Automatic annotation (TrEMBL):
Gene Ontology MF terms: DNA binding
Gene Ontology process terms (BP): DNA integration; DNA recombination
Source species of the chain: Microbispora cellulosiformans
Keyword DNA-binding: yes
Pfam families associated with the record: Phage_integrase
Keywords assigned: DNA recombination, DNA-binding
Region (Disordered) location: 79-120, 172-197, 360-386
PROSITE patterns associated with the record: CB, TYR_RECOMBINASE
Membrane spanning residue stretches: none
Name this polypeptide is given: Tyrosine-type recombinase/integrase
Residue span(s) of domain Core-binding (CB): 9-134
Record flagged with keyword DNA-binding: yes
Domain Tyr recombinase span(s) in chain numbering: 159-359
């Protein structure tokens, strides 16, 4: 039944009211702060693309399609705000859009814009806005019902995997461990940083945590020093994840060593709890993490270097843990998922993986440690023979 009278709010007015409601849900625990901010960010993007002064009820299915297509072509904002050498000062990546920064990633070079997953997420956020608008009497009809633009579902192999190969991931980790030489004045590295502005130890920790544990970037930047603790000689990170869920993940020895090295030089102001700080002493923003990865990647040998996002390193963690035979439930707990089926979208194929699996098939191994085609000591036949 159509509402007798519609409150003809502008797109901006409707978005402001909706975002206020979404953020209020974090108080009751109905939404996590990170999820609420994703909704808020998507709605703000919708306002820019649809036009803030337009009346929400005047938007048609064709208008929504135009917004979805514009979003699909939009460059990935995680690659904004870089300097001429591809790096960024702390804060540049996170507020590059407000400064009019230009993307320098694949999208800026004419490649694809938003991924299918990002497009699907944006569509869900816009749909949620219009569902609320319909129930609140801001629109006569939900235009999403007439929208036809949808991101193509993932199928088959991607032209370029999100996960780094083992060689690429090891190259990134080795570069993070190696101290970076100070840039020459006037050289390609830009201005020389003072000793208190050097961030190599922190950057190493960022890369090690992302590559070894695969946290969400929101979980990484929210981490506080007090979230890391020691139990029976093992270092742990208590990660506060989506939906208010927490998980305690043990740190590999090398990651724990990187953590200790960073804590020894970390300089924070009074009461600052954040683990990862800019050289100005402020908590790192989500966009700053991409700049850290890019800065480290510049020191990787060209043959082992490839662009990667923080989420791509999450894929890398899942892919190599599973390929190495790690129990799927253990991988699920490391990544912080409630359902095993979710691991499918974090799993990428690796070259030669099937050959390795078939070369050491567990049902065809000889007793006593022999492999396929080999006889066990003493001539004992394996299972199923004789």
């Amino acid at each position: 039944m159509l509402p007798p009278q519609v409150n003809r709010l502008t797109v901006q007015e409707a978005a402001d009211r909706y975002v206020e409601l979404v953020r209020a849900k974090t108080v009751t625990g109905a939404l996590s702060p990170a999820t609420a901010e994703v909704y808020a960010r998507d709605v703000a993007t919708f306002v820019r693309l649809a036009g803030d002064a337009r009346v929400l009820d005047d938007l048609t299915g064709e208008d929504v399609d135009a917004v979805l297509l514009a979003f699909a072509r939009k460059p990935d904002e995680r690659l904004r705000g870089r300097g001429e050498d591809g790096t960024a000062d702390e804060g540049a990546a996170s507020d590059g859009a407000s400064r009019g920064g230009r993307a320098r990633g694949p999208a800026a070079r004419g490649g694809p814009g938003q991924s299918a997953a990002s497009q699907a997420r944006f569509r869900r956020s816009v749909s949620a806005l219009f569902r609320h608008a319909a129930s609140a009497g801001w629109v006569h009809l939900d235009p999403m019902a007439a929208s036809s633009v949808r991101a193509r579902e993932r199928g088959g192999l991607r032209p370029e995997r999100r996960a780094l190969t083992r060689e690429q991931a090891e190259g990134l980790i080795e570069a993070a461990r190696s101290p970076a030489p100070p840039p020459e004045p006037g050289g390609p590295g830009g201005r020389r940083r003072r000793a208190d502005q050097r961030t190599e130890v922190r950057d190493a920790l960022v890369v090690m945590l992302l590559a070894a544990l695969g946290p969400r970037v929101s979980e990484l930047v929210r981490a506080n020093v007090e979230d890391f603790y020691t139990n029976d000689g093992m270092r742990y990170w208590r990660i506060f994840g989506k939906g208010g869920r927490t998980r305690d993940v043990p740190l590999p020895r090398d990651v724990a060593a990187a953590l200790d090295a960073y804590l020894a030089v970390r300089v924070a102001g009074d009461g600052e709890k954040a683990l990862l700080l800019s050289w100005r002493g402020r908590r790192l923003a989500r966009g700053d993490v991409q700049a850290v990865i890019d800065r480290v990647r510049q020191r990787v040998e060209p043959g082992r270097s490839r662009e990667v996002t923080p989420h791509g390193l999450r894929h890398t963690t899942a892919t190599h843990l599973l390929a190495d035979g790690t129990d799927m439930d253990a991988v699920r707990r490391v990544l912080g998922h409630s359902d095993l089926s979710t691991l499918g979208r974090y799993r990428d194929d690796l070259p030669g993986e099937l050959e390795v699996a078939m070369g050491s098939h567990p049902l065809l191994r000889r007793r006593g440690g022999g492999r396929d085609g080999q006889t066990a000591p003493g001539g004992e036949s394996g299972p199923g023979e004789g």
